[in-house]
Amino acid sequence: MYDLIIIGMGISGISASIYAHRAGLKVLLLEKSAPGGTINTISEIENYPGFKSISGPDLAYKLFTEVNDLGIEYKLEEVTDVIIDKTTVIKTKNNVYETKFLLIASGRRPKLLGLKDEDKFLGRGVCTCALCDGPLYKNSPVAVIGGGSSALSEALYLANIVSKVYLIHRRDEFRGENSLIKEVEKKDNIELILNNEVTELVIKDDTLTGIILKDRQKLAVKGIFIYVGYYPNTDFLKQTNILMEDGYILVDAHNETNIKGVYAAGDVTKKEIYQIINAASEGAQSVVYMTQKR
Questions:
Q1: Do 202 and 150 fall into the same domain?
Q2: How far apart are CA 156 and CA 50, in angstroms?
Q3: What is the domain count for the chain?
Q4: How far is Cα 224 from Cα 246, in angstroms, rounded to an integer?
Q5: Would you write out the chain's pLDDT as a tens digit for each of its 294 residues?
Q6: Model confidence over 148-159: pLDDT tens digits?
Q7: Are 7 and 105 members of one domain?
Q8: 113: burial class by Cβ within 10 Å (0-12, 13-18, 19+)?
């Protein structure tokens, strides 16, 4: 029996675990992939206090180091089911755990474009992480699809590796930070293509060789990097009565769900701002409020 189980080891979940540890709670972190979560896929972070600039993996490593230094218990196991009754039971592919309080900080994953053969070529020309796959396309042309800050920052990162970046957005202006837009516009090897979208992958000899746009323009690229939104990681909650909207968990001002003792924080929740700094804050405040109810 744990006092608190936290699903997800991104910055929200780890922040919560630190506060829980300091409050004397018996806490367990569960993570299905790598500690740090989505942060591991960010090439450069320049808007987090205390760091003028830090790579995502470096920040993730610092967070994980703190977990280890404090002796906070964690397990790299994928949660498959949550059963909420008088206590909450968490099932993973390996074990079953029981807890008094639950914090869901499972984050979200990238959306794809819904194109033919897209899934087949995921990791073989179709990518969602420039930091992970960018070096595979050194000195080759690529396309980045999206109009938010993620697309802009990843286009800038790729521009230092590849020969050319086509930055494609379906609207007539970008939605990202102004500072990023200005940097993108200065780059000689980034070509902006607005009011357009990818409609087809060009495949030759089982290899991605290009893309076709809505206006039938054909671009020769070796890879495409997709940043068009996200899906919340809430599939394992299908058997619960937790209120959601479009898969995102609804919480109150204390980050508590409609079910007493069940909290959610970070990118898995429905909110207006998705930033690293408020994800960390939400994880911490969740624990502060739940400890007041013990």
A1: yes
A2: 23
A3: 2
A4: 26
A5: 999 999 999 999 999 999 999 999 999 999 999 999 989 988 888 888 999 999 999 999 999 999 999 999 999 999 999 999 888 999 999 999 999 999 999 999 999 999 999 999 998 999 999 988 999 999 999 999 999 999 999 999 999 999 999 999 999 999 999 999 999 999 999 999 999 999 999 999 999 999 999 999 999 999 999 999 999 999 999 999 999 999 999 999 999 999 999 999 999 999 998 999 999 999 999 999 999 877
A6: 999 999 999 999
A7: yes
A8: middle
Instruction: For residues 97 and 64, state if they share a domain.
Output: yes
Terminal-residue alpha carbon distance, the chain: 15
* Residues forming beta bridges with residue 84, ordered by sequence position: 88
Whether residue 200 is found in the same domain as residue 120: yes
Residues with a known catalytic role: 129, 132-133
Query: Both tokens of residue 26?
Result: 């018996």
Which residue bears the tokens 């018996």? 26
What letter does residue 280 receive in the DSSP assignment? H
CATH number at residue 197: 3.50.50.60
The whole-model pTM stands at 0.85
Identify the CA nearest to 117 among candidates 220, 218, 210, 196: 210
Instruction: Say which DSSP state 26 is in.
Output: -
Instruction: Please report which helix (H) or strand (E) contains residue 285, including its range.
Output: helix 276-292
Task: Give the H or E element holding residue 184.
Answer: helix 178-186
Would you give the distance in Å from CA 12 to the centre of its chain? 11
Same domain, yes or no: 145 and 217 = yes
**Phi, psi dihedrals of residue 61, rounded to the nearest 5°:** -65, -40
Distance, C-alpha 98 to centroid of its chain? 27
Q: Within this chain, do residues 36 and 116 fall inside the same structural domain, yes or no?
A: no
Report residue 205 CA to chain centroid gap.
33
Say how far apart CA 91 and CA 93 lie, in whole Å.
7
Do 157 and 222 reside in the same domain of the chain?
Answer: yes
Residues 40 and 179 in one domain: no
Q: Domain of 80?
A: 2-109+230-292
